[in-house]
Design goal:
Strand content of chain C: under 5%
Oligomer: heterotrimer
CATH architecture of the largest domain in chain A: 3-Layer(aba) Sandwich
CATH class of the largest domain in chain A: Alpha Beta
Number of domains of chain C: 1
Chains: A alpha/beta (about 250), B mainly alpha (about 325), C mainly alpha (about 300)
Number of domains of chain A: 2
Structural class of chain C: mainly alpha
CATH topology of the largest domain in chain A: Rossmann fold
Shape of chain C: globular
Distance between the termini of chain C: 46 Å
Number of helices of chain C: 11
Helix content of chain A: 25-40%
Helix content of chain C: over 70%
CATH topology of chain C: ABC transporter involved in vitamin B12 uptake, BtuC
Number of strands of chain A: 10
CATH class of chain C: Mainly Alpha
Distance between the termini of chain A: 32 Å
Largest sheet of chain C: 2 strands, antiparallel
CATH superfamily of the largest domain in chain A: P-loop containing nucleotide triphosphate hydrolases
Order of helices and strands of chain C: HHHHEEHHHHHHH
Number of strands of chain C: 2
């Protein structure tokens, strides 16, 4: 079976600093593939190349067998790749519902309509409300996004990712900055969507990663040093060395 | 009814009633003032679409006023002095001139917008300004149309059923134009297209990640805005009957921006209130002293430093900003 | 076209380019380091010219007037930084543009009140007012050579300042990382004030050098500032090297285009068509160049590395 996502020998450097080094990765349909690694390992750089805001210097990226290495971000999104951001990336001045509704309308492909009032289109509103309900934010639908808490923002990100009905979801540290309770809620939420979408998860919270992932790849200095099921990674000496060397611990 | 809707209705109601009353009671000067105000308000409303809702700080909007006015002036000039007989159109007809003004401005917006929108932030501000100045110099260099000295429009646009030589009818047309422009912008802003435009203002990368090519949306809005401003320009040419490159000087673009901000960006009534406040203040101050630019400039600085939300914010504050 | 005309026009282009650099360098410096868009830079150009004009009459010597006018213009720049720009650093560029637009109105009216509505011609000392014969057919006003010399000297001085002095090091560091400079314990407010004053002095100098040719007048800066914008857009906002190269490029293209474009057009179209189209095209030439540059490189020729 062709993998959903496959990168071959990806390279990317910024002014002499190599951020992605000969990176080959394969993600199969329906799996939750976690990517872990010490700070500065190039995890976010990898995501930006996968979603298309940056292009690799060399190497290739394939989505369902199709070469998308140089395809612009908005077209990849239409093919079915969505990402969430490490730093919350929402439209803070819009209402919570409008944020999600925008994602829903983008999916429906009728965004160039200049005539019908967007807020009166029931199909879009209903779908957006259903998604908000799924992440537990239905009561906050009419609030301005800025007024919500950080944890709620992270949940909104997931609702927006779900709205796109993307086949491949790239989640960049969804637990970043969450408290203990909030993290657990997020893990439950991710568990509930796991299997329905192919997910690439970048995360520092090791408890979450080991609770959720089907497979884990370990990224060090832009290169994947090991890929395997959680149990294999846990016992991998090389991985342990890479983490201990960085003193960031966590394994 | 929200306070803001009420404010819009009151503003537009006053603007509809007061000028004709002044005119009929023997104060034609105030009707002229109102017509100018109304025409500039159309331009400000169009600017609000990209500046307010789109977050695109265009510093070249006066170019569209100028181009629109010249699209009336140049055909009228040829109608009188010959040179365009070959095309077989009545070049003094408003049904030719006004669509021409709109089309020229839409085209100019399309070409320059395609380049400008590739840039961001301060580059965008400066490049829109520079393109407007390009038009300014181009017109200055064409001697046939008066160059620096400008061009007198000897006959106003001929329209079926109305005569623009009658100040009251010209005002009426401008007022209807303003209402239509406001309705159009409001419709666009509330549509799905408008949601994308406003979303891209708040967080462009996020909207791109949703699979929307925000460049295309912004360019479309830019073209619509230019076209509406071109219509305002055609009216302005008919109002002043004298057009010169000076009307598209960059300081004029700055004034249009100020009207939008002063009145309150991203509101329906804002650009209209802003244009009204601007014109009336200009009129009042300049009748007091030749140095009226001094208090005016200080006021502008004060508005930027201390006045957030503009006049609409001030007048509807009790509602809690929504 | 004959050769001596080409040489003269090239020198004119060089002169315009160097004047543009003086204006643009201040703009790009202020934007690069303070992230502040200053439209009123145009007014500093004008104020420099007026102060220099007044001092030329008061002191009876143009050169002395320039030397005294420079620190005064710098002080005005410093005051603008302190009272108008500083409260606006945290705001967006739109607010910068609007506030400095208001500032232009204020400064132009003040100039109007102080110096009156008429322009003031600035007399040159006899030894600067002569002509230099470069060859038998080639005679140019010596003051033009002075402008070129002064422009080059100012550019050289600026490069030295930015690249080889402690202040320059801070300026460069500040352009790429403001927080870092702050963390080094440098008085960042002082640095900003100095940068603004330096930019003001440079713009003022350009105005002073132009004044004997055109006279000092209200609104004289308003056209220059747009061309200076074109320069820094083409060069890459924040880049001193870009500003220098783009200024010379724009100065030469504009001058040579106005002088020779009709001759060039006559090579492939009727002379009537060339004479109608050439003025319009040459007036738009620098904007067309700008559009071409931006179509290929949206951040200009030399985009600053870190932003």
């Amino acid at each position: 079976m062709t993998p959903v996502l496959e990168t071959r020998r990806l390279m990317k450097s910024f002014g002499g600093i190599i951020a992605t080094n000969d990176l080959s990765l394969s993600v199969t349909k329906g799996e939750l593939h976690a990517i872990i690694g010490p700070n500065g390992a190039g995890k976010t750089t990898l995501i930006t190349q996968l979603c298309g805001t940056q292009t690799p210097d060399s190497g290739s990226i394939r989505f369902k067998g199709r070469d998308i290495t140089r395809m612009p971000a908005h077209r990849r999104a239409r093919l079915g790749i969505t990402r969430s951001f490490q730093i919350t990336s929402l439209i803070l001045e819009m209402s919570v519902l409008d944020n999600v509704a925008l994602a829903v309308q983008a999916r429906q492909g009728s965004s160039f309509d200049m005539i019908r009032p967007a807020r009166s289109i029931k199909a879009i509103r209903d779908r957006a409300m259903a998604l908000l309900a799924r992440v537990g934010l239905q009561d906050k639908a009419d609030m301005i996004t800025r007024a919500l808490s950080h944890g709620e923002h992270r949940h909104m990100e997931i609702a927006i990712a779900l709205a796109s009905e993307a086949e491949l979801m790239l989640l960049d540290e969804p637990m970043a900055g969450l408290g203990h309770e909030e993290s657990r809620a997020m893990v439950d939420l991710l568990k509930s969507i796991k299997g329905k979408h192919t997910i690439v998860l970048i995360e520092h919270d090791m408890d979450a990663v080991f609770a959720l992932a089907d497979r884990i790849s370990v990224l060090v200095y832009g290169h994947i040093i090991a890929t395997g099921a959680p149990a294999e990674i846990r016992g991998n000496k090389e991985v342990e060395a890479a983490y201990l060397g960085e003193e960031s611990g966590g394994l | 009814m929200t306070r803001r809707t009420l404010l819009t209705l009151v503003t537009m109601g006053l603007l509809a009633v007061l000028p004709p009353v002044f005119y009929l009671t023997g104060n034609p000067f105030y009707l002229d003032l109102a017509t100018r105000l109304t025409i500039l308000a159309i331009a400000a409303v169009s600017l609000n679409l990209i500046l307010g809702y789109g977050g695109l700080v265009s510093f070249g909007h006066a170019a569209y006023l100028g181009l629109g006015a010249y699209a009336v002036g140049i055909p009228a000039h040829h109608w009188l002095y010959g040179g365009l007989e070959g095309i077989g159109l009545n070049t003094t007809s408003g049904l030719v001139q006004i669509p021409l003004a709109v089309a020229v401005c839409a085209l100019f917006a399309l070409v320059t917008g395609a380049i400008c929108l590739r840039t961001k932030g301060v580059y965008f501000i400066m490049i829109t300004m520079a393109f407007a100045q390009m038009v300014y110099y181009a017109i200055v260099s064409i001697e046939e149309y008066g160059g620096d000295d400008g061009l007198v429009i000897d006959s106003r646009s001929e329209l079926p059923g109305i005569s623009l030589d009658d100040p009251l009818q010209l005002f009426a047309l401008s007022y209807v134009g303003l209402v239509v422009a406001m309705g159009l912008v409001r419709m666009i802003v509330n549509s799905r297209f408008g949601m994308v435009l406003q979303g891209a203002k708040g967080n462009n990368e996020r909207v791109v990640m949703l699979g929307l090519n925000t460049y295309a949306f912004r360019l479309t809005a830019y073209v619509v805005s230019g076209a509406i401003a071109g219509f305002a320009g055609a009216l302005l040419g008919n109002f002043t009957t004298f057009i010169s490159p000076e009307m598209m000087d960059w300081t004029r673009s700055g004034e249009l921006m100020f009207m939008v901000i002063l009145g309150g960006a991203t509101t329906s009534a804002g650009p209209v209130l802003g244009a009204a406040a601007f014109i009336l203040l200009e009129e009042a101050l300049s009748s007091l002293t030749v140095y009226w630019h001094l208090p005016f400039g200080l006021l502008l600085i004060a508005v930027v430093l201390f006045g957030k939300g503009g006049l609409v914010g001030l007048l509807s504050r009790r509602e809690g900003g929504k | 076209m004959d050769l001596s005309l080409l040489v003269i026009q090239t020198l004119n282009g060089l002169q315009l380019g160097l004047l543009l650099f003086l204006v643009a360098s201040g703009l790009t410096l202020v934007f690069g380091i303070l992230d502040f868009v200053n439209l009123a830079h145009a007014s500093l150009y004008m104020v420099g010219a007026f102060i220099c004009a007044t001092l030329t009459f008061a002191l009876g010597n143009f050169l002395l007037a320039v030397l005294v006018a420079l620190p005064i213009t710098a002080a005005i720049g410093w005051a603008i930084e302190r009272f108008v720009a500083r409260p606006l650093y945290a705001r967006d560029h739109l607010d910068h543009v609007l506030a400095t637009f208001g500032l232009i109105l204020v400064m132009e009216t003040l100039a109007h009140m102080i110096w009156g509505p008429q322009g003031i011609a600035v007399p040159l000392p006899a030894w600067l007012n002569g002509q230099v014969a470069l060859s038998e057919t080639l005679v140019i006003p010596s003051f033009r050579l002075v402008i070129i010399g002064a422009g080059l000297a100012a550019a050289g001085g600026l490069f030295w300042l930015v690249n080889y002095t402690r202040l320059g090091m801070l300026i460069r560091a500040g352009a790429s990382n403001r927080v870092m400079v702050g963390a080094l314990g440098i008085n960042i407010e002082m640095l900003f004030g100095l940068v603004f004053a330096l930019g003001a002095a440079l713009a003022g100098l350009a105005g002073m050098l132009v004044a004997p040719i055109t006279e000092a007048s209200i609104g004289m800066g308003n056209n220059v500032i747009i061309t200076a914008f074109v320069v820094i857009i083409v060069g890459g906002i924040g880049s001193m090297k870009g500003a220098f190269i783009a200024a010379l490029l724009i100065g030469l293209i504009d001058t040579l285009g106005r002088a020779f474009l009709d001759d060039l057009f006559k090579l492939f179209m009727s002379s009537a068509a060339a004479e109608t189209s050439a003025p319009a095209i040459s007036a738009m030439l620098i904007y067309i160049i700008m559009a071409l540059v931006l179509a290929i490189r949206p951040q200009g020729l030399f985009p600053p590395k870190v932003r």
